[in-house]
Amino acid sequence: MNIGHLYDIRPAVHFAARASAGTGNVWGPRRIPDCQLFYVIAGEATLQLGPEHYRVKPGECVFYGPDSPHILKTDAPTQYYSLHFGWNESTPVPLHPAYGIRSVPDSDLERLPEPVQLTVDSHGEMAVPHHFAIGGVEPVMSSIVSEYQAQHAQPLLLRARMMELLSSIVGQLVNREATKNVSKIESALRAMRDHPGKAWSVAELAQLCGYHPSYFTKLFHQEVKTNPKQYLIAERIRQAKQSLLRGEKLDEIADRLGYTSIHYFSSNFKKETGLSPSEFRQQGKLAGGKPETQPD
Known about the structure:
Blueprint (H helix, E strand, L loop, with lengths): L1 E4 L6 E10 L4 E6 L3 E8 L2 E5 L2 E5 L3 E5 L5 E5 L3 E9 L15 E2 L13 E4 L3 E4 L3 E3 L4 H12 L5 H25 L6 H9 L7 H8 L3 H12 L3 H18 L4 H7 L5 H12 L3 H10 L10
Parallel strand pairs: 1-11
Antiparallel strand pairs: 2-9, 3-8, 3-10, 4-7, 4-9, 5-6, 5-8, 7-13, 11-12
């Protein structure tokens, strides 16, 4: 499927939801009539797309188009965003995909999924990957869901917000493609992921990579588009979300992630997510998986 130039697309949101599912929820094997983005907020899912398998962790997304037999399942209690959309639609009015979803035999999973390609300025033609990590998209995904579910939804506003989301995703993928073979800070990133409770200094992280702190800070911002302090905060919040959904106690989470008190942890969590830890956990309990007529 060739989409054309990014600047020329006219996306339409067909379905949008923020939901949760318990361990072992399964959608498929099936084929959908449009394209889907499935983004994990917390928990873990697995996508079988044709003969390929992808583990989808928090902050990661899977994408596939209409001629892509697949099975999607949750491997743990999972919160996620599910967006069905079309890249080029004559009208922005949502066309619910439920009636176009078709079950397929297991033998169809032997087929490779249809690639989706588009053209991007200064990069040329690119294939949209089926699995990728993505940052900073939860606010716009949330706004898409809110607008889609509003009593008097505005299709043109939905189109604009979907365009914003797709532009952000494509931009990050293009930048990552340009630097994927020259990552010079992986040791620092891995250290913060493995030991988020440590109060890492820039000097310590720079030493892990063998750089002077000022040069390390410059490299870090070039590759990650943020500073080490904010990256560490984001990593702590990502791990906190998973721990909250597992039912761990607030004091245990705060201690493990390096917070000096529950109050400090709660304040930082709400600043980053807009919800207190208790509200986030409650939202995960209340949000339910949708039936097939409201597809995931």
